Amino acid sequence: MTRPAGVTAIAVLYIIGACFMVLVALGLIIGGSLAGGALGSMIGGSQSTSGTGAAGGVAVGLFLGAAGGIIMLIFAAAHGVVAWGMLKLKEWARIVSIALAVLGLVLAVPALLFGVMRGSPVALVFTLVRVAIAGWILWYLVQPHVKAAFRGGSALPVQV
After folding, report:
1. Which end of the chain is less crowded, N or C, counting CB atoms within 10 A of the terminal residue's CB?
2. Model's pTM, two decimal places?
3. Per-residue model confidence as pLDDT tens digits over 111-142
4. Are 87 and 59 in contact (CB under 8 A)?
């Protein structure tokens, strides 16, 4: 059975998400070292002659940036694997995508509340777009013809 176009679209969304996460990871790693250097110079400037405050600030910045960057790279790799699974019509990828869509909808509730409390229309629009995409993914992946595609077409009705 051929891959439905919507499955390809979902895989592309995962690939775009993975690329975005790689960029965020690089930003965290680079930004962490820059922030650590700035923090180190502020701490180091207020201490006497030891200079250990500057080194400590740089170390903390590097650690936090590297840790955050590595976590984002792990998420990016996971999104890449799910995208591959979607393109290859692996049933586990459909299930993981459904779970991630549900998680996205659940996490959208506090994001919407935050956007309303802050009065940020950009945050609200961004969250509503995320909700729409997650809702569409969830709806699409439970459609009978999509489920059948992931199961090799065995669930298709027999035509007489």
Report:
1. C
2. 0.78
3. 888 878 888 888 888 899 999 999 999 999 99
4. no
